[in-house]
Task: structure prediction
Amino acid sequence: MPSPATPFTKPTLIKGQPASIRCVEVGGQTYALEGSALRVAALEDEWFEDVTDPQTVIESLRRLPRGSRPDIFTFWQRMPEVEARHTFHTEWEEIAVLPVQSYDHWWKDQIKSRVRNQIRKSEKDGLVVKEVPFDDDFVRGMTAIFNESPVRQGRPFWHYGKSAETIKQQFSRYLYRERMIGAYHDGEMVGFIMLSNAGRFAITGQIISSLKHRDKSPNNALIAKAVELCEEQKLPYLIYLFWTDDSLAEFKRRCGFEPVKVPRYYVPLTLKGQLALACGLHHGWKALVPRGMKARLKALRSRWYEARSE
Result:
């Protein structure tokens, strides 16, 4: 018999703001329950953990009381397992992956000449990139970058307006698996990465730089240092989260990242879950908007928020 699932709530951040999420614990792992009309359960730390026995989890979730039972359970396979090995309903997630052999290989063979030139120029302009501790100086640098603008990438920026104390508290939750990389110019931090170790790969958990120092290409230089640390830790992949169809995809491509598809599975646990999966509603209403219309709506949204911020 599967171990019983234990429901509870826990504090978290949603869109940069403190919130509580419903969770269940199965076999020592935490599964978050998201959604109200349609409840979907997924491993809370799925970038960092594997669902080792999906059938046991499914049976445990099905034994929950009707009022707290999720409608759908979803999980995926982490890199480098890209071949589907389960028979559940399968869809494919596209993530941005940089295979890491060595820094020298990345520099010579994986990046575009434009990126090499930008990194060389940033060094000539005095940009210094180094690993640093998560201390008060680092937090002050984060705070200054976060509070440059209320809008980034065409939408309200989650961390704008936060104090250094709030940022320190919210970003210190996962320091046990993170390394800080800072980019500095004349002693001022102008960009940073919080590089997470997921065991099989590294993840750019947070990468951001100062808008007024864009001409120094700090993000390119930060990726370069991240590759160097991956080689040092013998991590064979650097992952920049999901592959998207926006301007960020071109930056990833120039830096050597490539789209890789990994299987994601969906298991309906209720009749509602079966119907939602059959109708394609398990991704929410946004997934039903045609791609062309979605691009136009994003452009309108960007202009609206930029006009408001001005």
